[in-house]
Amino acid sequence: MSLLSDEAFPSMESLSGCHLLSKLVVEGKLQEDIRSRHSILHFLPESLAKLVLIRSEIKQDPMAILERLPNLRFLQLHNSYTGSKMVCSAHGFPKLETLKLISLFDVEEWNVKENSMPSLKILHIEGMRKLSLIPKGLKFVTTLRELSIRFMSQSFVDRIRVNEVGIEGEDLYKVRHVPSISFSSTYN
């Protein structure tokens, strides 16, 4: 299912009854009710295996809700979160295999707790210009096989790779176990 709109989606409540929905792409602003205790994402069905959010402008950390989706295997957040901090809790994202974080321009801090994302194989980080460190908790994600870093600052990249004279970046220990790490299009 794909929802595309230039207008803000007034509610996603109708999705909560879609018990067989496995793939969802939402492009456009998600209307958040500031009076509600629940995130707009609260209504996503547990059956979701693939979720792509593009230009959603979510103000609350989406990970708190998304990490509870028991069947989620693929998650892409593309310019969809406007907050400065994200947290992946212990035992969150039990089946997530692919995580793509693209153009989350305001995220300065991303915490990954031990025992989070125990099935993660592919991680793509792109265009997160305020993120200065790779999460320490990634060292516990032993299933991670592919890490792709794109359009990130040179200082971010330097922290996780070996330079031309053989000196290791100070954060390389967090991702040393990953067999494939690629970098492209860095900037100063």
UniProtKB/TrEMBL annotation:
InterPro entries: LRR_dom_sf (IPR032675). It comes from the Eukaryota. This is Disease resistance protein.
